Amino acid sequence: MSLSISLSINGAARDIVLDDVRVTLLDLLRERLALPGTKKGCDRGQCGACTVLVNGQRVNSCLTLAATLDGATVTTIEGLAQGDRLHPVQQAFLEHDGFQCGYCTPGQIMSAVGLIAEGHAGDDADRIREGMSGNLCRCSAYRGITEAVQDATRRMTAQAAEDAA
Amino acid sequence: MPDTLDRTIRFGSNSGQPMTRRDGIAKVTGAATFTADNTPDNVLHAVYVPATIARGRVTSLDVAAAEAHPGVTHVLTPANRPHLHGDPEAKPTMFSFRIEVLQDDTVRYAGQPVAMVLGETLEAATEGARLLAPTYEMAPPRVDLDRAEPYDVEPGGFGRPTGASHGDIDAGHRAAVKSVDVTYSTAPQYHNAMETHAIVAAWDGDKLHLDVPTQALSMSCAAYASFFDIPVENVTINSPYLGGGFGSKAVPIGPNILAILAARMTGRPVKLMLTRQQMFGPTGHRGATRQRLRLGIDEDASLTVIDHDSLSETSSFDDFHEPAAGASQGLYAAGALRSVHRGARLDIGTPGAMRAPGEASGSAALECAMDEMAEAAGMDPLEFRLKNYAETEPGTGRPYSSKALRDCYLQGAERFGWAGRPLAPRQMRDENGLLTGWGMGTALFPCPMFMAEARATLRADGSALFETSAVDMGQGALTALAQIAADSLGLPVDNVEFRAGHSSLPDGGVAGGSGHTATAGGALHAAGSDVIRQLGEMAAADPASPLHGAGNASFVARHGRLYVDGDDSRSEPFADILSRAGGADLVGSGSASRPPETAAQYAMYSHGAVFAEVKVDPDLCQVQVTRLVGAFAAGRIINPKLADSQLLGGLIWGISFALHEEAHHDPVTGRIVNADFAGYHVPVNADVRGLEVLTVHEDDPHVNLLGIKGVGEIGIVGTVGAIGNAIWHATGHRIRRFPIRIEDLLKA
Prior knowledge:
Helix content of chain A is 36%, strand content 15%.
């Protein structure tokens, strides 16, 4: 059985014929669309390594069937930077050493982008810790991650204020 | 701060700088390619079936059902598995473990592979594996360490630790006016790097190309070659990034051998990625221990004896005994010291080295026992440790190569605010009424060196290329080693290209034992020095050079120029020397290992002191670690930013050991019932706050040429005990098992 879906991935329109309805968004990206930046850490929504944005919301792509995404807009780690210019969250992770091995990092960064957009945490460290707790880091770069999200939030807020002025 | 080593080793301005990771941009943009990110054309996906019992044999597999599933191409079982040259039950090297590669239908632990399915898609292979639906003839599993029959470990290298005995143990016990006799338990723990084990295997005739994360490229090549009876040079391994290793990615695991066999059988590339559940079985783990510690003190509160007996689990078929009792050697000045290792066989996968093997578990028990001894002595735990401070290595009397532990104690205590801590437990509450406690522990970790080689190429344009098969599993090797390499030639690090993570490069040794920076760094430094030596010879012999005739002088390299040592008026750019010689690249090579005489002469350890604050809900007994201060002395710190990250990670592993990690076996099937991240807990971001790391200055002229001791593992050591002791201080309850759970405190 095959199924056609159309969606936008990192700003590009994609028409995809799914020959297998079991394909998750994560495996679609990694195995079929040559976008392996999104990582598989547990394949059952327990670690957050596969976090991407779907219609602006952070989701575990391993728990999302590709077949349900007709018409959706998907952003992955590969779509975050603008050319050579890093997204403020990427830049902050780099500066605060918010990672070691880098494997959970795409998920952490996408989760942080989603968290900042949700607007609930602001730059409050405790709320950021809570809001980022769906993303495991076995190297345990948590202090750097929290600092990076705080810093990026402040930078993005300042930038937004500047843009509005 | 004055640094006595600068002149002798020509260190430049790179080392000591908190440089940002060189691989950072690749890692924050998703461009860093981990093994399973490779999907070659025509690839087959492999999925194996893990045994769901711990002891018995497989009686049936529904191969027809799997083969009938669309997209399934092959099913591998013991009945059709192709010949494997290497004997999976043999142990050809000290680091070899027995593995399961479908050699028969026996099941010796849950999670062991019993069949493998190959498919055109991951979905097809996954469903095919499910359809195999194995049935078993089951024997009662032996998975309870407390009901197993202990035996004495026969010493024999890796996994069979030697005991030790110094002084008169019985006299030490008799001389004690106060003593403690306590037994601490530690749980089975699984590495669980975020990147599960994975491999992409492709054959080209009798040449084997592997994408596989490995902490030991050269050793892995040799092991794979021996399994498949091909020359070692026919094996190529690409391992540019590891998504964490923690000791589990040093030796080939059975599933990897099966994937390579499958690639040979099918003539197609094969990709295998273990599921998270499969990370609880054939990939090693930190074995559970039961540790009895008997300590005694005299009237003066000096230790008369440390007597440490460690029982550890191993598998029914192979030996890896956690070297936990070794943690009591080398630290406190006791009149008599003994460590004993005993083992017990269970129907589990063979344990292995997991971050701070031996020291993490052994120190957890030792530091808690020391706290109990301090309590018996009526002394502050820090004062008690200072009282028993060892000026030379206990037992052997060897001098330490360096030991700034006293500074760690004092600076850590100062930063934490230890002074004024009440001696008695259950004295402190916070503004919300939470019981508050402070505890501490000492950290100790050996500083091994392995063997590594490196190549340095100085190019005509004055830039350089350094090569060694070092690996970065998150510790920052790609950055710190490049800093060392650049300094060896006196170049800015941006003028240095550094290649690592591939088996075609000179042998970078093993990323383990906290010895990689010292060893691979030593080799890189030696290779750079070889280039300088050759450059000096060329210049000295060249009448056109301002360095002409300075043959007996030594040279130093700074900012891309060669200087006569001690005479800044005589120098010349590298590029000019090379240019007059025809402009060819200049290649140097170097190696590093520890001279045996130095190893015998000095006791070499990193040290640290960890101070913990916990808060415990008096009604619900929920525990939070609210502050951790770790002060560490680990020789020369090449990159303080990355070293801090390593040490912070270690502290959090300490929290994890103390409060979270524990695999539980179902007593009926022997299966691990919490084999995923929902049931096997590791700290999340919300569990972590109030962490501080201090690195104490330490010059070590003996440990190696660069004075590097290593920071990868010591952060865990000391932390576990500090947290356990803080929980006692908060609640008055000594919980002698790790992890410490809410129910332990409710029952206490």
